[in-house]
Amino acid sequence: MAKILLLEFNEICPPLLRRWMDEGKLPNFTALYNSSQVFTSVADVSEADYLEPWIQWYSIHTGLPYDEHKVFYLTDGPKADHSDIWRRLAGLGKSVMNCGSMNARALAGAGVFYLPDPWCNNQPAWPTEIEVFKTVMAKLVQESTRGVALGVNEWLLFVTFLLRHGLAADTIRAILAQLGSERLSRADVKWRRVALADRLQFDLFRHYYRRMRPDFATFFINSTAHLQHAYWRHMDPDAFPLKPAKDEMESYGDAVLFGYRSMDALLRRFFALAEADTTVILCSALSQQPFLKREGRGGQHFYRLRDVPHFLQLLDIAPRMVEPVMTHQYRLRFADRAAAEKALAVLKQLKLGADTVFGARLSGTDIHFGCQIYDRLESNGEIAGVPGRNEPLYFFDVLYAIDAVKSARHHPEGVLWLHTGEHAVHNEPVSILDIAPTIYDLMGVGDGVGCDAVRGASLVTHFRSGGRAEERRVA
Fold first, then answer.
1. How far apart are CA 111 and CA 94, in angstroms?
2. d(C-alpha 290, C-alpha 408), whole Å
3. Measuring CA to CA, how many Å separate 168 from each of 132, 204, 269?
4. Domain locations in the chain?
5. Which of 95, 225, 236, 350 is deepest in the core (most CB within 10 A)?
6. What is the per-residue pLDDT across 201-258, written as a single tens digit (0 to 9) for each?
């Protein structure tokens, strides 16, 4: 039965793929499309609050709908006890790799590779030697909005590890080219660094994939999703009342296309890596669409804390752990609920004029919070409500503005292509809950996994039994 390589290209969009494939800009996506069973997936929940990738990917990996698993926050997945696709397959004696899959619990042992996503970096990596990669990449991702200063020893350990674990010559050339362009270009090109992170992750993945030849492997990247959220308006300014400035168009007009082309180049490398008995599956969980909600107020801006420990010290808040999550949000973990409730009250009393500065929610003994001022601030106003403080505390003393204005939001439809060698387009949308049973079916372990493991249905019958499709041909 087939081995599976599941490529998790977060939130890539079917309409953008079609457009740029038709224009000849994505040759490797086109090759995969023309030899795949092409489905459109749909999220298992439709409400906007639940259209978050860390919810949908968790549903995909466990085979359970949100209504059953109830994993709502990023970093909640590792705390939950649901069995997932890697555990079920490992329990059947299959070798498995999880390279960055979102909101997934740690796994270790013989025949296992586990690299947590950058936001769940408290999970231990396996094998333990890749901890240095996990730690550095998490720091770079979590502080990507302003850069992060790594110590000399950190860089030395990181580079030494990369050189011994698959760093490719073309990746080195790409890094040098990027650094050179940052020095020479008058336009902002630092945003292109996201593609380098993907290449470093691929080099690591390839090194261990060749060593393990796993029965099942996942590879998750978020770079293009990030570019879409930040630069969709630069790709399609006609869709937005608030137009980008000319210099912004020069810097970011092709940012989203750059992301897709970078992934297209990665696909070529995955094709070379996968063996003949491996079925490649491309999945996005969700996609994106223009975000227009706050255009009349100048767009949605984000503000992030400059120094989280210092800020919490000012408020006399002492969590046992702080976890940065997406964009401007943080998770505070407390030893008990009383301490969490006290901290919640302090955060909610901070005001900028009539506006509450932070949105904060209590979940057990944890607090999820982030700045909920979304308008562009022209002046440095005073924050009121800081307990026990006599001197003024100004907004930009503790927060800074993230450069990008929100341009895209989540859409429930996603990409789902199964490389079978035969091309067929299936018009009827399918649930993301169908992905796990399809993988089990392709691997021939459906009976071993058991019907209690899934809530969806295998898609294999859609093409192996000659199921209806709009277009069908052999590649």
1. 7
2. 4
3. 18, 9, 12
4. 3-289+410-462, 295-406
5. 225
6. 999 999 999 999 999 999 999 999 999 999 999 999 999 999 999 999 999 999 999 9
pLDDT digits (tens, 9 = 90+) for 266-300: 999 999 999 999 999 999 999 999 999 999 999 99
Peptide bond into 237 cis (omega under 30): no
Distance CA 204, CA 242 (A): 41
The CATH number corresponding to 3-289+410-462 among 3.40.630.30, 3.40.720.10, 3.40.640.10, 1.10.150.130 equals 3.40.720.10
- CA of 206: how far to CAs of 56, 61, 110, 133, in Å? 26, 22, 18, 14
DSSP state of 126: B
What Cα–Cα distance (Å) separates residue 91 from each residue in 84, 154, 449? 11, 36, 9
pLDDT tens-digit map of 121-156: 999 999 999 999 999 999 888 876 566 667 889 999
Backbone dihedral region of 98: left (phi > 0), alpha (psi from -120 to 50 degrees) or beta? beta
